[in-house]
Design brief:
Distance between the termini: 37 Å
Strand content: 5-15%
Radius of gyration: 19 Å
Helix content: 55-70%
Structural class: alpha+beta
Strand order of the largest sheet: 1-2-3-4
Length: 170
């Protein structure tokens, strides 16, 4: 392969990654923008009832999903930051090697945008800013944010992609 051919292959790989990187960037911007609004207008613990089942609330999560390890002494900030950085690098590799697999790449882009959003929070604040809270009949789902929603959507799409892949091979 000539040197120009290698460049073209790399350029075409980057070009096919661009839509997925753009989606991840849109998710990241939406996540950070909503968190800036919450940080600007709410104090920690403040809440506004929006409907009978939904509140906006400013919560700080020093742990992972569902406040896992939130009560630890602070080391978890760096552990979860490291996991987020490692996940980002792995996702970028996967997007580079599988850009034509639309559902798979969509899922990865959602997870990437959300993971980077939460890593930024950990680095800037030492915690993740959560603000979306659903509740029903006295039961409260843990507060979450746009990044968490994107990660969840991405995870569901990864499972769906794998189920569809297995079904096609039968």
């Amino acid at each position: 392969m000539a040197r120009g051919d290698t460049f073209m292959m790399r350029g075409s790989t980057l070009g096919s990654m661009l839509p997925w990187l753009a989606l991840a960037l849109i998710i990241l911007i939406a996540d950070q923008f909503t968190k800036v609004l919450i940080l600007g207008y709410y104090r920690h613990g403040d809440s506004t009832t929006i409907t009978s089942f939904f509140n906006l609330v400013r919560a700080h999560n020093t742990g992972a999903a569902f406040s896992f390890l939130a009560a630890a002494s602070g080391w978890q900030r760096w552990l979860f930051t490291g996991i987020g950085v490692a996940a980002t690098l792995f996702i970028l590799y996967l997007l580079r090697t599988h850009p034509g697999q639309k559902l798979f790449s969509f899922a990865l882009a959602c997870i990437l945008g959300g993971a980077v959003g939460n890593v930024i929070d950990r680095l800037l604040h030492g915690y993740v800013v959560d603000f979306l809270q659903f509740h029903w009949a006295g039961w409260y789902f843990p507060a979450f944010n746009v990044a968490d929603a994107a990660i969840t959507i991405g995870a569901v799409c990864l499972v769906l992609d794998e189920l569809l892949r297995v079904r096609r091979t039968k």
